[in-house]
Amino acid sequence: MADEKKLSASEVRKTIGVSLGAAFGFVIALMWNEVVKGGLAVAGVDMTSTDPELMGWLGYVVTAVMVTIVMIVLIIVIGRWGNK
To answer: N or C: which end of the chain has fewer CB within 10 A?
Structure first.
């Protein structure tokens, strides 16, 4: 028991940073999934639950781009925080 390794604050921050980065990446993937499904619906390839009209699909594209930018910024900020 004397050989137990204690976690440092730096290791905890790094682990949290990596976990949050992965979670934000997952959010980005979910958003782009909707964009792709909507694009397929607009093209008539597959009718999905999304609005199969061009304006509905463009709304998904704009939302996905904005969420991607915000999530990338958060990944960078948290990555820097985790590396302190």
So the answer is: N
